[in-house]
Amino acid sequence: MEYESQIRLSVFIGLFVLLALAELVVPRRSLRMNKVLRWFSNISMTTFNTILVALLPLAAVAYAYTVEEAGGGLLNHLALPAVVKVVITVIVFDCLIYWQHVIFHKVPILWRLHRVHHSDVDLDVTSGARFHAIEIILSMLIKLAAVRIIGPPALGILIFEVVLNGSAMFNHSNIRLPLKLDRLVRMFLVTPDMHRVHHSVHRDETDSNYGFNLPWWDYLFGTYTPQPRDGHNEMEIGLHEFREPRAQYVDKLLVQPFITPELDKDEEITQDH
User: Fold this and answer.
1) Rounded to whole angstroms, what are the CA distances from 102 to 50, 85, 106, 228, 262?
2) 130 domain-assigned
3) Would you state the pLDDT for residue 2?
4) Which ranges of the chain have pLDDT less than 70?
5) With pLDDT > 70 as the criterion, what percentage of the chain qualifies?
6) How many structural domains is the chain composed of?
């Protein structure tokens, strides 16, 4: 679609600046690691992935337009108003991302890729786009397959991707929401407090709160954990295997899926419980 890149980039930069400023004004937690190191690594990973996707024919919006023009996919065979198709697209693809997220946790070889995201020892606005390039490619291939089967309108995919990127930055951000507001917002949108539980070092908490945008799937499928057992201020974020500063360097993040770090017995016990 025309202006797709400009729309996505404008929303990304605008939200990034807004949330980064909010983190300075109303932070939720004190950061444990050097912010310059983390930001350099996380933004480098994000930039590399953005360039990679741009160089590969993996644009979901463009493919959705092609499928739409050809009349392919389920939605193109249903006589529904355009706005209804857009709403269905956003909801269905959000559910798809939820299940993709669950699968990347449950399948060991996929978890190796996804743990690059979870090995961040702090959470802030840069964490939302910290993923390994191979996971990004697999995610795009899954999305393209879904586009071919479902036949969503291109506008629906554009809205979905803009909302997903924005909500990922929001729910990974280190901002403090008033508790009453948090309880209200998490009825319709994953909040930072809700998603932070998912980044706990405790594996049972890591395997919960999978939603990136809509929280309904966690409520519906029984994967919702309201609060971390250690509290938001005291909880440890990340993975026991990758806590040293050197593990946060870009080169280490790129090779992380291909190594098997050893845990001592105390760490294994803590992780399993």
Assistant:
1) 24, 26, 6, 19, 24
2) yes
3) 59
4) 1-3, 262-273
5) 94
6) 1
Q: Which tokens is 191 given?
A: 């909040």
Q: Can you give the residue range of the structural domain that contains 150? A: 4-185+243-272
Residue 212 to residue 48: CA distance in whole angstroms: 22
CA distance 247 to 244: 6
Beta pairing partners, 175: 27
Q: How far apart are CA 119 and CA 95, in angstroms?
A: 25
d(CA 26, CA 62) in angstroms, rounded, equals 39
For residue 1, what pLDDT is reported? 57
Q: Let me know if residue 27 belongs to a domain.
A: yes
Distance CA 109, CA 134 (A): 12
Which whole-number Å values give the CA distances from 32 to 84, 129, 235, 242, in the listed order? Answer: 45, 19, 11, 14
Contact yes or no for 227/186 (Cβ under 8 A): no
In the block, which residue shows the tokens 């910290």? 130
Element (H, E) at 185: helix 179-185
Amino acid at 169: M
Question: Each residue of 72-87: b (16+ CB within 10 Å) or e?
Answer: bbebbeeeeeeeebbe
d(CA 10, CA 213): 19
User: Can you read off the two tokens belonging to residue 83?
Assistant: 């706005």
Asked if the structure places residue 17 within a domain, the reply is: yes
Structural domain includes residue 67: yes
- Please give the model's pTM, rounded to 2 decimal places: 0.90
Residue 27, SS3 per DSSP:
strand
